Each structure stands twice: as structure tokens, then as C-alpha cells.
């Protein structure tokens, strides 16, 4: 038990050193400036002490009980081999470790596969080469006039394909959410909820969003300021018999009355983690809009500089803050990427621990069978036959661990994917690749021992002097 305590204490000291070395890397990766407070809490210190005690008992109790249970006469006569050869516990531990390795490797593949699946989907909207300029914070009574002036001047710049505005853009949450929407009559008791976006009349053209029915906003029609565009999800929520049937219907948002003039094709406003949303579009109030500008792939830096000059002239005193829409849309998957990297690090650690245990078991087994190998070699066994003999038990352990792990990995994958509205296909290779990988690593790990003893001179292995 004292020996076990010393090993646990040394492991703890090395773990603390590793903790402080890796902490800056972890905080940088998570983009969260956090102070390491490992020893600042009495609860943590007590927990660490309990960990060391429990670890000491777990690793030292069985060997101490095993050694102290020997009867002196039997041990002196060498009659302890049956007890020593009871390897069920060792094999069980290795099987558990290999099972965990298969599950974690599967998790890494599933996370990366799901991220790639979501990124490869077509959101139904053109977001490439779209520069988003955040709304000006300093506004006045002339801000409405500045919108048209700024838009027209930017459109005259080379490399500009289109300019529009909106209260929010794809990739971010739509803040405008109403739950008091009614149809037909303002006094109707049936209420609906929906997200609402105010947009410029060029919004559909800039983002290449098709109309399914009706027409787009017309800036020359004054009545369009009291009109709405709705998407397919909203049409379904309002129970319109068809998209054409939605045209001309009255929609009350609170006490304000609007007429539906068009139905817009669904597109993914948020990432593919989320379901399609019901969205209503009204012609925007341009007091302090955010801009979306389609720019050419050529001379991007020059185009941004020119736009910035026009911005400073129109919105004096406001900071020119911008980002590219495709980057913002892609950033929605950052949490999944972080989880994937964390799981990858844990997987690497677990696999390393598992195969250290497997290496130790292989070393123990091969050392006990050294004389047997020498006798078999004298009797004509080839190196390949001996390798198969020594390896098959370990390959069997890997197979048992894989059989146990696959159902768990499958169920955990299904459980994890439930949080996504759009899921990747559950291909069988996601579960067989980890099995093949673990089996191959198992064979490589034990080969270091089996090849050496199989090629050793039998004279050296059989001798006992």
C-alpha cells in the first residue's frame, strides 16, 4: 500500500505540472481568459486528497491482499502458479480500455462527419462575397436620407454587385419575435408566433432568394410599406391552402395591418443545427440599417477601402465595422469544432493509456511463455506460427472489446445527433473504422514483444541456469 501511495503521489505531481503547462493552451483554445485556481478552493484540495487515497486503495489493495494471502509452506514449494495465472481481471481491464478507445475514436469521426455534413449543405441563399457593415450607432433625423445616398454612391464603385439592408442577416438570431400575430380579423382569437425581419427592396435580388408566388416589394409603391413577404414555413403555419392562396391575405402584427404580397422560398437563416423558421419580411425602416454589399472577388482590399471612405462621408463619427457573411455563418459551427478537438485530445489520451496497459499485459504474457516458445521453436515452429500463437489472445480481446463498444457507440451517436435538426447518415464505416484501427494498433503494440521472443535463439530461452 505504501508503494502504491508513492506511485499515486508521483502521478499527481506530474499531473499538476502538466495542468499548469497546458492551461494557457486550453484557455487560448477556448478563447476564454480564465485564471488557474487549482489550489484556491478547499473543496478542490479535499477532492484531490480523496482521489489520491482512492487511487492508492484501488491500485494497492488487490496486490496487498493477494500477497498476504499466501500460505508460507505453499509459497515456498512454489504452489502459487494457479493463483498467479488467474488473468481474468487483467483481461477484463484491457477489454474495457479497448472498448472505451473504440467509442472515443467513433465519437471523433462522428463529430467531424456531422460538421462536414452541415457545412456541405446548400443553405438556399447566396452568402459568398457578401460584406456586412454593422449599423451606425450615432444617428440623427437625416439618417434615412443618408441610406439612399450611401447605397447609390457604393453602387457606383467598381466591383460592387449589389447593396441592400436588413435588421438582421443570416447566421445570427432574429431578435424580432412576435407572438401576437393574427390573420384576417384583428379581433380573431387565434394567435401565431413568427420571426420578423425588415429588409430593403433589393434583399431578395442581392441574396438570390427566389419568389414562389406573388411579387417583391416595389420602392415606388407607397402601399408596400404596409405589405408583407412570408416564407414557406410561415405559409404552412398560417394554414394557407397554397402559396398562391396566401397572396392578398391580411396579417395583423399587434394592431398593425399588413397584406401578404409574396411568398419567399425557404432558406436556412441559421446553421443546420436548427429547424427552418417561420419568417415575415416587411419593407425596412432605414433609420440605422446594417448593410449587405456584394463585392467582386477581384481587388477585395481596394473595394473595402473605397466603401470605408464612402461610409465616413455618410456616417461621420461612426466606426466602420464589417465582416464577411460566409465567415459569420461558418462560425456557428465553432462550438462543434471545439468539442471535436477536446474529444480528440481525450481520445488520444485514452488510447495511449489503453495501449500502455496492453503493452504491459503483452510483456507479462510473453515473459511467462518464453520457455514454451523456445520448446515450440525446437520442435519446428516457424516465426509466423509463433507470432500467431502469441497474438491471437490479444486480437481476441480487441474483438471482444469492439463487440461490446459498437452498440454503445451507436446509441451514444444517436443520442448526440438528436440535438441537430439535420443529421448525417449513420454509415456503417463510422463504426468499423475504429474497430479496424484499434485491432491494428493492438497488433502493432504486441508485435514489439512477440517478434522479439519468436526470433530469439531457443537455446537462450530454454536454459534455466
Note down, in words, how this protein is organized.
- The protein has a 6-stranded mixed beta barrel. It has a 4-stranded antiparallel β-sheet with strand order 2-10-1-11.
- It has helices at 2-30, 42-68, 72-76, 81-84, 88-120, 143-155, 203-206, 232-237, 243-246, 300-314, 325-330, 334-368, 370-378, 383-417, 429-454, 458-462; strands at 130-133, 160-166, 177-183, 192-199, 211-214, 227-231, 250-253, 256-264, 279-283, 290-295, 322-324.
- Helix 1 (2-30) packs antiparallel against helix 2, helix 5 packs across helix 14 (383-417) and helix 5 (88-120) crosses helix 15.
- The protein has 465 residues and is α+β, with helices and mostly antiparallel strands.
- 55% of the residues lie in helices and 13% in strands.
- It contains 16 helices and 11 strands.
Amino acid at each position: 500500500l505504501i508503494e502504491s501511495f508513492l506511485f499515486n503521489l508521483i502521478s499527481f505531481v506530474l499531473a499538476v505540472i502538466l495542468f499548469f503547462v497546458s492551461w494557457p493552451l486550453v484557455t487560448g483554445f477556448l478563447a476564454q481568459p480564465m485564471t488557474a485556481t487549482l489550489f484556491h478552493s478547499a473543496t478542490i484540495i479535499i477532492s484531490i486528497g480523496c482521489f489520491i487515497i482512492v487511487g492508492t486503495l484501488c491500485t494497492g489493495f488487490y496486490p496487498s491482499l493477494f500477497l498476504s494471502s499466501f500460505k508460507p509452506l505453499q509459497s515456498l514449494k512454489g504452489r502459487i502458479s494457479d493463483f498467479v495465472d488467474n488473468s481474468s481481471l487483467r483481461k477484463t481491464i484491457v477489454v474495457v480500455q479497448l472498448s472505451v478507445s473504440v467509442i472515443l475514436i467513433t465519437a471523433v469521426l462522428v463529430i467531424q462527419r456531422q460538421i462536414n455534413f452541415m457545412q456541405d449543405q446548400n443553405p438556399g441563399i447566396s452568402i459568398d462575397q457578401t460584406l456586412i457593415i454593422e449599423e451606425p450607432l450615432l444617428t440623427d433625423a437625416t439618417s434615412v436620407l443618408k441610406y439612399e445616398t450611401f447605397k447609390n454612391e457604393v453602387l457606383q464603385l467598381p466591383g460592387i454587385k449589389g447593396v441592400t439592408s436588413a435588421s438582421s442577416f443570416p447566421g445570427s438570431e432574429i431578435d424580432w419575435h412576435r407572438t401576437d400575430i393574427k390573420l384576417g380579423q384583428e379581433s380573431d382569437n387565434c394567435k401565431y408566433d413568427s420571426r420578423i425581419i425588415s429588409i430593403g427592396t433589393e434583399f431578395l435580388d442581392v441574396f438570390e432568394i427566389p419568389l414562389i408566388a406573388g411579387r417583391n416589394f416595389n420602392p415606388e409603391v407607397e402601399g408596400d410599406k404596409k405589405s408583407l413577404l412570408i416564407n414557406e414555413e410561415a405559409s404552412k403555419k398560417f394554414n394557407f391552402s397554397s402559396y398562391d392562396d396566401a397572396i392578398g391575405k391580411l396579417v395583423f402584427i399587434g394592431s398593425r395591418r399588413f397584406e401578404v404580397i409574396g411568398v419567399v422560398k425557404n432558406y436556412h437563416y441559421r446553421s443546420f443545427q436548427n429547424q427552418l423558421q417561420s419568417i415575415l419580411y416587411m419593407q425596412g425602416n432605414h433609420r440605422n440599417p446594417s448593410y449587405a454589399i456584394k463585392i467582386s472577388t477581384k481587388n477585395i482590399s481596394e473595394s473595402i477601402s473605397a466603401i470605408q471612405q464612402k461610409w465616413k462621408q455618410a456616417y461621420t463619427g461612426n466606426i466602420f465595422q464589417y465582416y464577411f457573411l460566409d465567415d459569420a455563418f461558418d462560425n456557428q459551427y465553432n462550438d462543434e469544432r471545439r468539442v471535436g478537438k477536446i474529444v480528440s485530445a481525450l481520445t488520444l489520451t485514452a488510447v495511449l493509456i489503453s495501449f500502455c496497459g496492453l503493452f504491459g499485459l503483452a510483456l507479462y504474457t510473453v515473459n511467462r511463455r518464453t520457455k514454451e516458445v523456445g520448446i515450440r521453436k525446437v520442435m519446428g515452429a516457424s516465426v509466423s506460427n509463433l507470432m500467431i500463437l502469441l497474438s491471437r489472445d490479444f486480437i481476441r480481446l480487441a474483438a471482444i472489446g469492439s463487440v461490446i463498444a459498437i452498440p454503445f457507440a451507436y446509441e451514444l451517436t444517436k443520442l448526440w445527433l438528436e440535438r441537430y435538426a439535420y443529421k448525417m447518415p449513420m454509415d456503417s464505416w463510422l463504426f468499423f473504422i475504429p474497430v479496424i484501427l484499434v485491432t491494428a494498433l493492438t497488433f502493432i503494440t504486441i508485435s514489439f514483444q512477440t517478434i522479439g521472443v519468436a526470433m530469439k535463439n531457443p537455446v537462450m530461452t530454454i536454459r534455466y541456469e
